[in-house]
Design brief:
This protein is mainly alpha-helical. The protein is 55% helix and 3% strand. The strands form two sheets. The protein has a two-stranded antiparallel ribbon. A two-stranded antiparallel sheet has the order 3-4. A hairpin with a 2-residue loop joins strand 1 and strand 2.
């Protein structure tokens, strides 16, 4: 078979790249199978299975140019696969130099080991080519996006003009989608392309207990990963590769479809690169047809069906398959070829696309301003309510269409509108750059993604915009109170033990005054006030004034953030005495006020649930 895609090479250049056709040629495939045989001999010689003197003899015979492709092709018919006639031919070639070395060819392996590993090596070369083209296309679209980030075009939904958007946003979306395919292929190159070496039934029984060691050396020589076990009839890894190819083709097809639509005579906002003979007609000299988009679309339409075949071949019998495995041989090369064709066409589009900014502007103006209807609707909604504003704008749009007048003109004449929006405000609503929302942010994020950079996550939703900025360190005051309470809780027990006799059996210890639960606190007292440590008695010896404690905030009725925090002040706080030695610095304290509330509640709960102290306990504490 001269070409795995078509019986003739006449059409292959339209649907595939020249580099991919070279990678998938019969001679290249044969060489990958021979690379497996040479590496196998070296791996087995390294651990003493094959005499080292035979390695070079076998390796010298593993050159594809030594074999007759046509003869091998004919021999495949009775053999059922290419590995059997190739191993026979290789054995005969080695036997010309050494009959003993010929006896060690293909030692312990099976036909599927040769073919599957050659397929894995082939797919690795395929992915490398695709990644190179993806890099080109992504780079070109990013450059186009940068040049067109301020140029406004009409977003089109259901093929109708919808809203004004930056044309650069559209281009950045193309770059990001191709970047995701590139990342996907890079991952699969590492994870899915693994060695196949299992022998007749996936046990490597012919190698006794040295099968895994041979596998590791063989994989190292071929620069592959050793899987957990041979995968003769488990084709999920290859199915994932096929799916990734089809996804890439779909992304290219989407880009090509957009370009073809934008090149329509009635739209005319972009054009493919021009060249002598490109896009012409056999009878109409004026035509500039979307040749690249056509090639990309046709190849992209073939790819999903080929990928579906690979997905279907996962259904295989027992340890070795009949039919399913064999169906992959022609399908995978065909899939790789059409994916290379659709991607190469997109590369050419990206690197040579021309943009007609004036035509984009004219198309926006031709709508009579109808693309700004949503902007007007939401401006009116702030005063009339969303439902009423929506109906009013829809009514004006229908009237404009009926009168065949510009939407902007009919809108400006409407009495209800004039009562709510003055002429200056209305004019501002019809400026294309005014109604973009987060488009520029999205454009930057898409470009970062396409370049493989981490997209910065927005934290604006974590910030309370109306919360005043405090100039004092309230958390330090809160945690100071927490530390003082925890210290006095322990100190109070010691004082009680030395100040009065131990309680009797029917007498329960009282809670320290500092942590007695008060009546429900108001919002102003929900958080503890800082403890006054200026009294003559050191805080660690005597309890401070009673501190109110609020139970943890219920999940179903959270307190407002502003109410939970102490009131901010405009100036620096009044100086207080130095905190006691047991108060930790702020860097070692909890950050969340909610966590501090839990500390207070936990102290109270543990004190309430503690068993009555015995005389022995009191003596130990004393």
């Amino acid at each position: 078979m001269t070409d795995p895609l078509l019986p003739s090479s006449l059409l292959a250049p339209l649907f595939s790249s020249a580099e991919m056709r070279a990678v998938l040629g019969d001679r290249a495939r044969l060489q990958r199978m021979l690379d497996f045989e040479a590496a196998l001999a070296r791996a087995e010689a390294a651990i003493g299975i094959v005499p080292s003197s035979h390695v070079n003899v076998i390796a010298e015979a593993c050159r594809a140019e030594l074999y007759d492709l046509a003869a091998l092709g004919e021999a495949v018919i009775p053999a059922g696969n290419l590995a059997i006639p190739l191993v026979n031919a290789l054995t005969a070639e080695v036997g010309k130099t050494s009959r003993k070395a010929a006896g060690f060819v293909h030692w312990g392996a099976t036909s599927q080991d040769v073919i599957d590993t050659a397929t894995v090596l082939e797919l690795r070369a395929v992915i490398d080519l695709l990644i190179a083209d993806l890099d080109r296309a992504t780079k070109a679209f990013i450059a186009l996006a940068g040049r067109n980030r301020r140029n406004i075009t009409a977003a089109r939904t259901l093929l109708q003009q919808a809203l004004p958007i930056p044309f650069g946003l559209k281009l950045a979306g193309y770059a990001a989608s191709l970047g995701r395919s590139r990342d996907r292929l890079r991952r699969l190159r590492k994870e899915a392309l693994v060695l196949q070496f299992g022998g007749a039934a996936g046990t490597l029984a012919a190698l006794d207990d040295k099968g895994l060691e041979v596998s590791e050396r063989l994989a190292a020589l071929l620069d592959l990963t050793v899987p957990d076990a041979p995968w003769h009839s488990h084709r999920d890894r290859l199915a994932e590769v096929a799916a990734a190819f089809a996804i890439l083709a779909g992304s290219c097809g989407k880009i090509a479809r957009d370009v073809a639509l934008l090149m329509q005579s009635e739209v005319g906002e972009v054009a493919e690169p021009a060249a002598p003979g490109r896009g012409g007609s056999s009878t109409m000299p004026h035509k500039r047809n979307p040749i690249g988009a056509t090639a990309a679309l046709s190849a992209a339409m073939i790819a999903p069906n080929l990928a579906a075949t690979i997905l279907n071949t996962q259904i295989q019998e027992h340890e070795r398959s009949v039919g399913g495995w064999q169906a992959e041989w022609a399908t995978f090369p065909a899939l790789a070829l059409v994916v290379s064709g659709t991607l190469r066409a997109v590369v050419e589009i990206a690197e040579g696309l021309t943009v007609d900014v004036e035509r984009m502007k004219a198309n926006l103006e031709a709508s009579g301003g109808i693309v700004f209807a949503e902007a007007v609707s939401f401006a009116l909604a702030e005063k009339l309510g969303r439902a009423e504003a929506h109906e009013l704008v829809a009514e004006i749009a229908r009237e404009a269409a009926k009168q065949q007048r510009a939407f902007k003109d009919v809108l400006a004449e409407n009495d209800k509108v004039k009562l709510q929006i003055n002429a200056t405000e209305l004019e501002k609503l019809f400026r294309p750059n005014h109604y973009q929302g987060s488009a520029q942010n999205f454009l930057d994020r898409l470009v970062a993604s396409a370049q493989g950079r981490t997209v910065r996550r927005s934290v604006s939703h974590l910030i309370e915009p109306k919360m005043p900025v405090a100039k004092t360190d309230h958390l330090s005051a809160i945690t100071a109170a927490t530390s003082a309470i925890m210290a006095t809780a322990a100190a109070g027990s010691s004082l009680a033990a030395s100040a009065k006799p131990a309680p009797t059996a029917d007498e329960s210890p009282r809670l320290p005054r500092a942590i007695e639960t008060p009546a429900p606190a108001t919002a102003d007292t929900a958080m503890p006030k800082p403890v006054d440590t200026s009294a003559p008695t050191p805080p660690v010896i005597g309890p401070p004034a009673a501190v109110t404690v609020e139970p943890p905030i219920a999940a179903e009725a959270p307190a407002p953030i502003a109410a939970a925090l102490p009131e901010p002040v405009a100036s620096e706080p009044e100086p207080t005495s130095a905190p006691s030695a047991d108060i930790r610095p702020p860097s070692e304290q909890a950050d969340e006020p909610g966590a501090l509330l839990e500390v207070f509640a936990r102290i109270e709960a543990e004190t309430e649930s503690a068993p009555p102290a015995t005389p022995q306990d009191e003596r130990k504490r004393a």
